[in-house]
Design brief:
Blueprint (H helix, E strand, L loop, with lengths): L7 E3 L6 E3 L7 E6 L5 E6 L6 E11 L12 E8 L5 E6 L5 E6 L6 E6 L6 E2 L6 E6 L5 E7 L5 E7 L4 E4 L5
Antiparallel strand pairs: 1-2, 3-4, 4-5, 5-6, 7-8, 8-9, 9-10, 11-12, 12-13, 13-14
Length: 171
C-alpha cells in the first residue's frame, strides 16, 4: 500500500506476517536456500539491480511501539553488486550455488555464483534468457529464452555437459 516492494514471511501456524526488508530499495524474486536459513533476492537498493542474501536466522523484530509494518532488522549481504542489471536469483536445491540473470555482457544471460559471491560463471549464450530454476538434484538449470519469432521457449541446461535441451518450442 504505497510502500517499496519488500520481502515478507508469513508464519504458517500463526499467520503472523513478518516484513523482512525495508524501504532501502525494491526487493523481488526471493528464493530460499535448501537449509531454510537464507533468502536470496534482487534489489535496486544500490541504484542498479543486484543480488543480495538475507540471513533469516539473524532477523530481530521491530522495537516495541514501532509503527505498523516496520521491517525486522536482518543481516543482508550484497552477493553480486557490480553495476550490471542482476535479477531473478534462484537458489539451487542441492548445491551452494545461485543462478541469476545478468546483462553484464550486453545481453540477458544465465549466470551462477556460489553463496559467497565467488566463482561467477556464465551458463548461457545468446540473448533474452530469464527465469532460471535449479533441478531437484542440482545438475541442471531450466530457463526461458526469447526466440527470433518473439515467442518464448523453455530450455534445460545440463551444467556438467554444457548441453541444452529444448523442452518447448515456438508453434
Amino acid at each position: 500500500v504505497g510502500e517499496t516492494p519488500s520481502i515478507y514471511w508469513i508464519e504458517r501456524q500463526t499467520r503472523v506476517v513478518r516484513r523482512l526488508t525495508g524501504d532501502e530499495g525494491a526487493a523481488s524474486s526471493p528464493s530460499w536456500s535448501a537449509d531454510g536459513e537464507q533468502i536470496v533476492f534482487a534489489s535496486d537498493r544500490a541504484g542498479t539491480s543486484d543480488i543480495y542474501v538475507l540471513d533469516v536466522t539473524s532477523c530481530q523484530p521491530p522495537a516495541e511501539g514501532s509503527p505498523e509494518n516496520t521491517p525486522e532488522t536482518c543481516a543482508i549481504t550484497a552477493l553480486v553488486a557490480d553495476g550490471a542489471q542482476n535479477t531473478q536469483p534462484a537458489w539451487s536445491p542441492t548445491r551452494d550455488t545461485i543462478a541469476f540473470v545478468s546483462n553484464r555482457e550486453g545481453e540477458s544471460a544465465i549466470y551462477t555464483v556460489n553463496s559467497r559471491g565467488r566463482r561467477l560463471n556464465r551458463l548461457t549464450d545468446g540473448a533474452q534468457n530469464s527465469e532460471p530454476a535449479g533441478s531437484p538434484e542440482g545438475g541442471r538449470v531450466s530457463f526461458t529464452t526469447g526466440l527470433p519469432s518473439g515467442e518464448t521457449a523453455v530450455q534445460v541446461l545440463d551444467i556438467n555437459r554444457r548441453e541444452i535441451e529444448a523442452i518447448t518450442t515456438a508453434g
